Amino acid sequence: xxxxxxxxxxxxxxxxxxxxxxxxxxxxxxxxxxxxxxxxxxxxxxxxxxxxxxxxxxxxxxxxxxxxxxxxxxxx
Length: 76
Fold this sequence. Notes:
Blueprint: H1 4-37, H2 43-69
Helix pairs in contact: 1-2
Protein backbone atom coordinates (compact mmCIF):
# COMPACT_ATOMS: atom_id res chain seq x y z
CA UNK A 1 0.00 0.00 0.00
CA UNK A 2 1.32 3.41 -0.94
CA UNK A 3 1.04 6.07 1.76
CA UNK A 4 0.08 9.68 1.09
CA UNK A 5 3.59 11.08 0.76
CA UNK A 6 4.70 8.32 -1.60
CA UNK A 7 1.56 8.84 -3.66
CA UNK A 8 2.34 12.54 -4.02
CA UNK A 9 5.89 11.73 -5.10
CA UNK A 10 4.55 9.30 -7.70
CA UNK A 11 2.15 11.96 -8.97
CA UNK A 12 4.97 14.50 -9.20
CA UNK A 13 7.01 11.99 -11.22
CA UNK A 14 4.02 11.34 -13.48
CA UNK A 15 3.66 15.10 -13.97
CA UNK A 16 7.29 15.31 -15.11
CA UNK A 17 6.73 12.44 -17.56
CA UNK A 18 3.59 14.12 -18.93
CA UNK A 19 5.47 17.41 -19.38
CA UNK A 20 8.28 15.68 -21.27
CA UNK A 21 5.78 13.81 -23.47
CA UNK A 22 3.95 17.07 -24.22
CA UNK A 23 7.26 18.71 -25.15
CA UNK A 24 8.09 15.89 -27.57
CA UNK A 25 4.60 16.09 -29.10
CA UNK A 26 5.01 19.81 -29.66
CA UNK A 27 8.24 19.13 -31.56
CA UNK A 28 6.48 16.45 -33.63
CA UNK A 29 3.63 18.87 -34.35
CA UNK A 30 6.08 21.51 -35.54
CA UNK A 31 7.73 18.97 -37.85
CA UNK A 32 4.35 17.99 -39.32
CA UNK A 33 3.39 21.62 -39.86
CA UNK A 34 6.63 22.15 -41.77
CA UNK A 35 5.85 19.06 -43.86
CA UNK A 36 2.38 20.41 -44.65
CA UNK A 37 3.91 23.66 -45.85
CA UNK A 38 6.05 21.63 -48.22
CA UNK A 39 2.87 20.06 -49.65
CA UNK A 40 3.41 16.66 -48.09
CA UNK A 41 0.46 14.67 -46.80
CA UNK A 42 0.78 15.16 -43.05
CA UNK A 43 -2.69 16.46 -42.14
CA UNK A 44 -3.93 13.19 -40.64
CA UNK A 45 -0.81 12.77 -38.51
CA UNK A 46 -0.96 16.40 -37.45
CA UNK A 47 -4.55 16.00 -36.25
CA UNK A 48 -3.62 12.95 -34.21
CA UNK A 49 -0.63 14.69 -32.62
CA UNK A 50 -2.70 17.75 -31.74
CA UNK A 51 -5.42 15.58 -30.20
CA UNK A 52 -2.86 13.76 -28.05
CA UNK A 53 -1.19 17.04 -27.05
CA UNK A 54 -4.51 18.48 -25.85
CA UNK A 55 -5.16 15.28 -23.88
CA UNK A 56 -1.75 15.58 -22.22
CA UNK A 57 -2.33 19.24 -21.42
CA UNK A 58 -5.58 18.39 -19.62
CA UNK A 59 -3.87 15.52 -17.77
CA UNK A 60 -1.06 17.88 -16.73
CA UNK A 61 -3.59 20.42 -15.47
CA UNK A 62 -5.38 17.76 -13.39
CA UNK A 63 -2.10 16.62 -11.84
CA UNK A 64 -1.04 20.19 -11.07
CA UNK A 65 -4.41 20.96 -9.45
CA UNK A 66 -4.25 17.83 -7.31
CA UNK A 67 -0.69 18.50 -6.19
CA UNK A 68 -1.43 22.15 -5.39
CA UNK A 69 -4.51 21.15 -3.38
CA UNK A 70 -2.30 18.86 -1.31
CA UNK A 71 0.15 21.62 -0.54
CA UNK A 72 3.03 20.51 -2.73
CA UNK A 73 5.22 23.16 -4.32
CA UNK A 74 5.55 22.59 -8.06
CA UNK A 75 8.82 23.42 -9.76
CA UNK A 76 8.97 24.06 -13.49
